[in-house]
Amino acid sequence: MIPVFRWQDIADIIIMSFIAYNLYGWFRKTKAFQVVVGLGFLGVIYLITKNLGFFMTSWILQELGTVLFVLIIVIFQAEIRQALYRISPLHGLFGRQDQGQHLDPGEFADAVFSLAASRTGAIIVIQREEPIDEYLSNGINIDSTITGQIIGSIFFEGSPLHDGALIIRNGRIAQASCHLPLSTRADIPHYFGTRHRAGLGLSERSDAIVIIVSEERGEVTLALSGEMRKVESTTQLVELLLGLLEPKAQVPTHISLAKRICGNFWPKLATVGLVSVCWLIVTARQGELVTVNAPIQFRNLPESMIFSKSSQDQVELQLKSVSSLIPLPKEGEVAAQVDLGRIKEGSNLVALRKEDFNLPSGVQITRIKPAALRVSVERKQRKLLRVEARVSGAPADRLWIKRIRTQPSMVMVEGPESVLARLESIRTEEIQISGMERSFTVEKRLDPPAPLRVVNDDHVRVRLVLGK
After folding, report:
1. Where are the domains of the chain?
2. 379-467 is classed in which CATH architecture?
3. 436 with 399: CB under 8 angstroms?
């Protein structure tokens, strides 16, 4: 049976679709995405074999899935960390604030194509918003302005810094001779060498712009977000850099909601459809019914009233979960919180509502037995009662109790009027005098009958005087 849609279910599908679509956009060109697709295929096989009763196959796939999940976290930790960085709401707040790049695109493009004309291999990285330090190794720190002469001298064949990447940060040359992480993609053209794999590898892990100059072919390639494109001229490179390095505040950001939703429509529709199917698979398999006993706790009793009695001290609940993946509460994990804020003096019939029970999300109440309680409350009264010592046993031979004194001799007691009307005294806890040979003083607590309460201190001093 397909469950009835709630607004929470719609929000659930929308949120998961948004997350799934963004993860797809970030990982679709990486090996991590291929592994996720393979795991999804194994998950489908696991669900099929489990429902068909293939116990050995489903058990092996379940155990294998646990191990593979840990391995994915270890192997693809860089990709996972980058995805979490991009989705973080603090990314824009605590990220890089110096968005403007003080770089002359024309002069820079001339320097790049000058290297290409002389068949000088080079790889130049322009850092944008996301930090890239964790991906760099063996770099030499340089703090220099960007000029064609400096770029040419760094990548000159005889230069000690020519082997590696040049890093441009905040419009200045920051490092040279840096080693970059290599891409592990299998679809890279065979004529692309180590420089192209390194540039593509960094672009897969960050939003940096990577420009590669081929030593063999004299071509200029730009790598961005895991994709490479050939740049044909200085004019084209200048246009690309202007579009990529322009501060965000100057880029038109007004895009209608319809365009945001309909842009890249078919992948988005496929994502929503896939998430909806997964939601139906999860929620259509409702969990089993269980019956638990829930203790009753009363709250918000008016100050002028005092609780007298209740027809029940616990109720029977029948629970079910919207999915077999949601565990049901066990005995003792659920309690009723009954509100007595509007109760009146005397006997009251209090209905039990589903809102009185604090249940985990996805767990529903199908039956409450009984559906109502008979609760009695009385008006609270106070009365002075005489204190009596409760003595047991007998003193030593030929001794007897001559006198008993209590301090205080009277105490104020609070409780229901019907109970206080029948009492004139209140007794202490038991005082054992068996075998006592002399007078003594002891401190004891008062022992009022339920539901009475001593207003002030419930300790009294009792003096027992023995004589012959």
Report:
1. 7-92+254-283, 105-246, 290-370, 379-467
2. Beta Complex (2.170)
3. yes
